[in-house]
Amino acid sequence: MELKLHTFDLPLKHTFTITHESRDVQPTLIVELSWHGKSGFGEATETPYYGVTMAKMKSQIESILDLLPHDILPHPSDFWAMMSKTLLDEHPFALCALDVAYWDLWGKTHNKPLYEIWDLDISDNPITDYTIGIDTVEKMVAKMQETPFPLYKIKLGTDDDLEIVEALRRETDAIFRVDANTAWTPEQTIYFAPELAKLGVEFIEQPLKADNWEGMKRVFKESTLPIIADESCILESDVEKCAGYFHGINIKLMKCGGITPALRMIKKARTLGLKVMVGCMTESTIGCSAIAQLLPLLDYVDMDGCLLVDDQISTGITIDYGVVSYANLPGTGASLL
Predict the structure, then answer these.
(1) pLDDT tens digits for range 201-224
(2) Backbone CA torsion sign across 14, 91, 296, 32
(3) How many whole angstroms separate alpha carbon 129 and alpha carbon 152?
(4) Which of 149, 183, 192, 129 is closest to 17 using CA atoms?
Protein backbone atom coordinates (compact mmCIF):
# COMPACT_ATOMS: atom_id res chain seq x y z
CA MET A 1 0.00 0.00 0.00
CA GLU A 2 1.23 3.47 -0.91
CA LEU A 3 0.59 6.56 1.21
CA LYS A 4 0.74 10.14 0.00
CA LEU A 5 0.12 13.33 1.99
CA HIS A 6 -1.29 16.45 0.34
CA THR A 7 -1.51 19.80 2.13
CA PHE A 8 -3.67 22.76 1.15
CA ASP A 9 -4.67 26.16 2.52
CA LEU A 10 -8.38 26.52 1.86
CA PRO A 11 -9.51 30.17 1.75
CA LEU A 12 -12.67 30.78 3.75
CA LYS A 13 -15.38 32.69 1.92
CA HIS A 14 -15.82 34.86 5.02
CA THR A 15 -13.85 35.32 8.22
CA PHE A 16 -15.13 32.52 10.45
CA THR A 17 -15.50 33.45 14.10
CA ILE A 18 -16.61 31.37 17.07
CA THR A 19 -15.96 31.95 20.77
CA HIS A 20 -12.58 30.15 20.51
CA GLU A 21 -11.02 31.81 17.47
CA SER A 22 -11.29 33.65 14.15
CA ARG A 23 -9.71 32.52 10.88
CA ASP A 24 -9.63 33.40 7.18
CA VAL A 25 -7.79 30.31 5.92
CA GLN A 26 -8.28 26.65 6.80
CA PRO A 27 -5.16 24.49 6.39
CA THR A 28 -6.10 20.90 5.59
CA LEU A 29 -4.31 17.58 5.17
CA ILE A 30 -5.50 15.04 2.61
CA VAL A 31 -4.32 11.46 3.07
CA GLU A 32 -4.25 9.26 -0.03
CA LEU A 33 -3.98 5.49 0.32
CA SER A 34 -3.40 3.58 -2.92
CA TRP A 35 -3.78 -0.13 -3.64
CA HIS A 36 -3.54 -1.75 -7.09
CA GLY A 37 -4.48 1.37 -9.02
CA LYS A 38 -7.26 2.61 -6.73
CA SER A 39 -6.92 5.51 -4.27
CA GLY A 40 -8.90 6.38 -1.17
CA PHE A 41 -8.92 9.87 0.32
CA GLY A 42 -9.34 11.09 3.91
CA GLU A 43 -9.02 14.51 5.48
CA ALA A 44 -8.09 16.26 8.71
CA THR A 45 -7.97 20.01 9.25
CA GLU A 46 -5.45 21.92 11.31
CA THR A 47 -7.20 22.98 14.52
CA PRO A 48 -5.06 24.97 17.00
CA TYR A 49 -7.85 24.95 19.61
CA TYR A 50 -7.24 21.20 19.96
CA GLY A 51 -3.48 21.47 19.53
CA VAL A 52 -3.65 19.97 16.04
CA THR A 53 -1.06 21.36 13.63
CA MET A 54 -0.13 20.31 10.11
CA ALA A 55 3.41 19.37 11.12
CA LYS A 56 2.17 17.16 13.95
CA MET A 57 -0.38 15.35 11.80
CA LYS A 58 2.14 14.64 9.05
CA SER A 59 4.65 13.33 11.57
CA GLN A 60 2.02 11.18 13.26
CA ILE A 61 0.87 9.60 10.00
CA GLU A 62 4.39 9.02 8.74
CA SER A 63 5.10 7.13 11.97
CA ILE A 64 2.77 4.29 10.94
CA LEU A 65 4.18 3.63 7.46
CA ASP A 66 5.55 0.24 8.52
CA LEU A 67 2.08 -0.79 9.78
CA LEU A 68 0.30 -0.36 6.44
CA PRO A 69 -1.02 -3.57 4.81
CA HIS A 70 1.26 -5.29 2.29
CA ASP A 71 -0.42 -8.52 1.15
CA ILE A 72 -4.17 -8.25 1.79
CA LEU A 73 -6.66 -5.54 2.72
CA PRO A 74 -8.02 -6.19 6.23
CA HIS A 75 -11.54 -5.06 7.04
CA PRO A 76 -11.64 -1.32 7.88
CA SER A 77 -12.48 -2.05 11.52
CA ASP A 78 -9.36 -4.20 11.78
CA PHE A 79 -7.28 -1.55 10.01
CA TRP A 80 -8.57 1.06 12.48
CA ALA A 81 -7.71 -1.20 15.41
CA MET A 82 -4.13 -1.54 14.16
CA MET A 83 -3.73 2.20 13.58
CA SER A 84 -5.44 3.21 16.82
CA LYS A 85 -2.85 1.40 18.94
CA THR A 86 -0.39 4.06 17.81
CA LEU A 87 -2.57 7.08 17.10
CA LEU A 88 -5.84 7.13 19.05
CA ASP A 89 -4.97 8.46 22.49
CA GLU A 90 -3.34 11.69 21.37
CA HIS A 91 -3.81 11.87 17.61
CA PRO A 92 -7.45 11.28 16.62
CA PHE A 93 -7.33 13.82 13.76
CA ALA A 94 -4.52 11.93 12.03
CA LEU A 95 -6.27 8.65 12.75
CA CYS A 96 -9.47 10.02 11.19
CA ALA A 97 -7.73 10.96 7.95
CA LEU A 98 -6.27 7.44 7.69
CA ASP A 99 -9.52 5.72 8.62
CA VAL A 100 -11.63 7.69 6.12
CA ALA A 101 -9.06 7.15 3.36
CA TYR A 102 -9.12 3.44 4.07
CA TRP A 103 -12.93 3.22 4.10
CA ASP A 104 -12.97 5.13 0.80
CA LEU A 105 -10.42 2.70 -0.65
CA TRP A 106 -12.45 -0.24 0.70
CA GLY A 107 -15.58 1.02 -1.04
CA LYS A 108 -13.72 1.63 -4.29
CA THR A 109 -12.17 -1.85 -4.13
CA HIS A 110 -15.68 -3.33 -3.71
CA ASN A 111 -17.16 -0.89 -6.27
CA LYS A 112 -19.90 0.31 -3.92
CA PRO A 113 -20.64 3.53 -2.00
CA LEU A 114 -20.17 3.05 1.71
CA TYR A 115 -23.86 3.52 2.44
CA GLU A 116 -24.56 0.51 0.19
CA ILE A 117 -21.90 -1.55 1.92
CA TRP A 118 -23.66 -0.74 5.20
CA ASP A 119 -27.08 -1.48 3.63
CA LEU A 120 -28.48 1.97 4.40
CA ASP A 121 -31.54 3.59 2.82
CA ILE A 122 -30.71 7.12 1.58
CA SER A 123 -34.28 8.04 0.61
CA ASP A 124 -35.03 10.07 3.75
CA ASN A 125 -31.73 11.72 4.67
CA PRO A 126 -31.68 14.80 6.93
CA ILE A 127 -30.70 18.10 5.31
CA THR A 128 -27.64 20.00 6.44
CA ASP A 129 -27.64 23.39 8.09
CA TYR A 130 -25.50 26.34 6.99
CA THR A 131 -23.36 28.00 9.66
CA ILE A 132 -23.38 31.73 10.36
CA GLY A 133 -20.29 32.64 12.40
CA ILE A 134 -20.16 35.42 14.98
CA ASP A 135 -20.04 38.86 13.36
CA THR A 136 -21.93 42.12 13.32
CA VAL A 137 -25.64 41.65 12.78
CA GLU A 138 -25.37 43.37 9.42
CA LYS A 139 -22.70 40.94 8.22
CA MET A 140 -24.56 37.93 9.60
CA VAL A 141 -27.67 39.02 7.71
CA ALA A 142 -25.60 39.54 4.57
CA LYS A 143 -24.26 35.98 4.84
CA MET A 144 -27.79 34.62 5.04
CA GLN A 145 -28.83 36.67 2.04
CA GLU A 146 -25.81 35.44 0.11
CA THR A 147 -26.66 31.80 0.91
CA PRO A 148 -30.43 31.29 1.32
CA PHE A 149 -31.02 28.12 3.31
CA PRO A 150 -33.96 26.44 5.05
CA LEU A 151 -31.82 25.72 8.12
CA TYR A 152 -29.12 27.84 9.77
CA LYS A 153 -26.72 27.15 12.62
CA ILE A 154 -26.04 30.40 14.44
CA LYS A 155 -22.79 30.73 16.36
CA LEU A 156 -23.28 32.66 19.61
CA GLY A 157 -21.25 33.58 22.68
CA THR A 158 -21.48 37.38 22.79
CA ASP A 159 -23.04 39.91 25.13
CA ASP A 160 -25.99 40.30 22.74
CA ASP A 161 -26.91 36.75 21.83
CA LEU A 162 -30.67 37.03 22.16
CA GLU A 163 -30.73 40.31 20.25
CA ILE A 164 -28.71 38.69 17.45
CA VAL A 165 -31.20 35.86 17.03
CA GLU A 166 -34.11 38.31 17.14
CA ALA A 167 -32.50 40.39 14.37
CA LEU A 168 -31.79 37.34 12.21
CA ARG A 169 -35.32 36.04 12.68
CA ARG A 170 -36.68 39.23 11.12
CA GLU A 171 -34.80 38.35 7.92
CA THR A 172 -35.83 34.71 7.36
CA ASP A 173 -38.36 32.04 8.28
CA ALA A 174 -35.67 29.32 8.22
CA ILE A 175 -35.25 26.96 11.15
CA PHE A 176 -32.44 28.00 13.51
CA ARG A 177 -30.02 26.02 15.63
CA VAL A 178 -27.72 27.85 18.03
CA ASP A 179 -24.24 26.89 19.14
CA ALA A 180 -22.77 28.73 22.12
CA ASN A 181 -19.45 26.83 21.99
CA THR A 182 -19.24 26.61 25.81
CA ALA A 183 -19.77 30.37 26.35
CA TRP A 184 -22.90 30.37 28.54
CA THR A 185 -23.69 29.69 32.18
CA PRO A 186 -26.49 27.36 33.33
CA GLU A 187 -28.59 30.39 34.28
CA GLN A 188 -28.16 31.98 30.86
CA THR A 189 -29.03 28.75 29.07
CA ILE A 190 -32.19 28.17 31.08
CA TYR A 191 -33.24 31.81 30.59
CA PHE A 192 -32.46 31.88 26.87
CA ALA A 193 -34.13 28.57 26.03
CA PRO A 194 -37.84 29.63 26.04
CA GLU A 195 -37.03 32.91 24.30
CA LEU A 196 -35.06 31.09 21.62
CA ALA A 197 -37.86 28.56 21.21
CA LYS A 198 -40.24 31.42 20.42
CA LEU A 199 -37.77 32.53 17.74
CA GLY A 200 -37.86 29.19 15.96
CA VAL A 201 -34.71 27.64 17.41
CA GLU A 202 -34.65 23.84 17.21
CA PHE A 203 -31.96 23.08 19.80
CA ILE A 204 -28.97 24.50 21.67
CA GLU A 205 -25.53 23.03 21.12
CA GLN A 206 -22.92 22.87 23.90
CA PRO A 207 -23.90 25.90 26.00
CA LEU A 208 -21.61 25.15 28.96
CA LYS A 209 -17.95 24.33 29.48
CA ALA A 210 -17.23 20.75 28.51
CA ASP A 211 -16.53 19.62 32.07
CA ASN A 212 -19.43 21.41 33.76
CA TRP A 213 -21.45 18.25 34.35
CA GLU A 214 -23.18 19.60 37.45
CA GLY A 215 -24.41 22.60 35.48
CA MET A 216 -25.49 20.41 32.59
CA LYS A 217 -27.55 18.22 34.90
CA ARG A 218 -29.54 21.28 35.89
CA VAL A 219 -29.84 22.53 32.31
CA PHE A 220 -30.96 19.08 31.14
CA LYS A 221 -33.81 19.14 33.66
CA GLU A 222 -34.88 22.76 33.23
CA SER A 223 -34.22 23.75 29.60
CA THR A 224 -37.26 24.07 27.37
CA LEU A 225 -35.08 23.27 24.33
CA PRO A 226 -33.08 20.10 23.65
CA ILE A 227 -29.36 20.35 24.42
CA ILE A 228 -26.79 18.70 22.14
CA ALA A 229 -23.28 17.83 23.34
CA ASP A 230 -20.26 18.76 21.25
CA GLU A 231 -17.14 19.56 23.27
CA SER A 232 -18.47 17.22 26.01
CA CYS A 233 -18.57 14.30 23.58
CA ILE A 234 -15.26 13.66 21.86
CA LEU A 235 -14.42 9.95 22.04
CA GLU A 236 -16.49 6.77 22.25
CA SER A 237 -16.15 6.69 26.02
CA ASP A 238 -17.91 10.06 26.27
CA VAL A 239 -21.22 8.89 24.79
CA GLU A 240 -22.42 7.09 27.90
CA LYS A 241 -21.41 10.05 30.07
CA CYS A 242 -23.80 12.29 28.12
CA ALA A 243 -26.92 10.26 28.95
CA GLY A 244 -28.96 12.21 31.49
CA TYR A 245 -26.99 15.37 30.82
CA PHE A 246 -27.76 16.00 27.13
CA HIS A 247 -30.59 15.14 24.80
CA GLY A 248 -28.22 14.28 21.97
CA ILE A 249 -24.62 14.25 20.83
CA ASN A 250 -22.71 15.84 17.96
CA ILE A 251 -20.05 13.45 16.64
CA LYS A 252 -17.05 14.88 14.82
CA LEU A 253 -15.12 12.31 12.79
CA MET A 254 -11.82 14.08 13.37
CA LYS A 255 -12.29 14.28 17.12
CA CYS A 256 -13.30 10.65 17.63
CA GLY A 257 -10.82 9.14 15.16
CA GLY A 258 -12.85 8.46 12.01
CA ILE A 259 -15.83 6.62 10.57
CA THR A 260 -15.12 3.38 12.42
CA PRO A 261 -15.59 4.75 15.96
CA ALA A 262 -18.38 7.07 14.75
CA LEU A 263 -20.44 4.04 13.72
CA ARG A 264 -20.02 2.58 17.19
CA MET A 265 -20.86 5.91 18.83
CA ILE A 266 -24.07 6.17 16.82
CA LYS A 267 -25.12 2.67 17.85
CA LYS A 268 -24.34 3.38 21.51
CA ALA A 269 -26.23 6.68 21.46
CA ARG A 270 -29.31 4.94 20.11
CA THR A 271 -29.28 2.41 22.96
CA LEU A 272 -29.19 5.35 25.40
CA GLY A 273 -32.06 7.22 23.75
CA LEU A 274 -29.84 10.07 22.57
CA LYS A 275 -30.39 12.00 19.35
CA VAL A 276 -27.45 11.84 16.94
CA MET A 277 -25.82 14.59 14.91
CA VAL A 278 -22.59 14.55 12.94
CA GLY A 279 -20.72 17.81 12.45
CA CYS A 280 -17.82 18.98 10.34
CA MET A 281 -14.54 20.79 11.01
CA THR A 282 -14.52 23.20 8.04
CA GLU A 283 -13.18 20.54 5.72
CA SER A 284 -13.33 20.26 1.95
CA THR A 285 -15.68 18.08 -0.10
CA ILE A 286 -13.50 15.08 0.73
CA GLY A 287 -14.31 15.24 4.43
CA CYS A 288 -17.95 16.15 3.85
CA SER A 289 -18.41 13.26 1.42
CA ALA A 290 -17.37 10.90 4.21
CA ILE A 291 -19.95 12.41 6.56
CA ALA A 292 -22.62 12.01 3.87
CA GLN A 293 -22.27 8.22 3.98
CA LEU A 294 -23.64 8.32 7.54
CA LEU A 295 -26.70 10.46 6.78
CA PRO A 296 -29.33 7.70 6.98
CA LEU A 297 -28.23 7.01 10.57
CA LEU A 298 -28.59 10.62 11.76
CA ASP A 299 -31.23 12.94 13.18
CA TYR A 300 -29.26 16.09 12.37
CA VAL A 301 -26.20 16.97 10.32
CA ASP A 302 -23.89 19.97 10.09
CA MET A 303 -21.77 19.28 7.01
CA ASP A 304 -21.45 22.68 5.39
CA GLY A 305 -17.65 22.91 5.58
CA CYS A 306 -17.30 22.53 1.82
CA LEU A 307 -19.64 25.52 1.42
CA LEU A 308 -17.73 27.70 3.87
CA VAL A 309 -14.40 27.28 2.07
CA ASP A 310 -13.44 28.01 -1.50
CA ASP A 311 -12.97 24.36 -2.39
CA GLN A 312 -11.05 24.09 -5.63
CA ILE A 313 -9.21 20.92 -4.66
CA SER A 314 -11.82 18.17 -4.53
CA THR A 315 -15.04 16.68 -5.86
CA GLY A 316 -17.71 14.50 -4.30
CA ILE A 317 -21.08 15.32 -2.78
CA THR A 318 -22.96 18.48 -3.68
CA ILE A 319 -25.34 20.51 -1.52
CA ASP A 320 -28.33 22.45 -2.83
CA TYR A 321 -30.51 24.34 -0.34
CA GLY A 322 -29.49 21.91 2.37
CA VAL A 323 -30.13 18.75 0.34
CA VAL A 324 -27.06 16.54 -0.03
CA SER A 325 -26.62 14.70 -3.35
CA TYR A 326 -24.15 11.86 -3.77
CA ALA A 327 -21.58 11.62 -6.54
CA ASN A 328 -22.90 8.16 -7.51
CA LEU A 329 -19.39 6.73 -7.21
CA PRO A 330 -17.93 4.02 -4.97
CA GLY A 331 -16.41 4.65 -1.55
CA THR A 332 -17.18 8.14 -0.31
CA GLY A 333 -17.40 9.33 -3.92
CA ALA A 334 -14.72 11.94 -3.29
CA SER A 335 -11.46 12.62 -5.08
CA LEU A 336 -8.77 15.25 -5.46
CA LEU A 337 -8.94 17.35 -8.61
Answers:
(1) 999 999 999 999 999 999 999 999
(2) positive
(3) 5
(4) 183
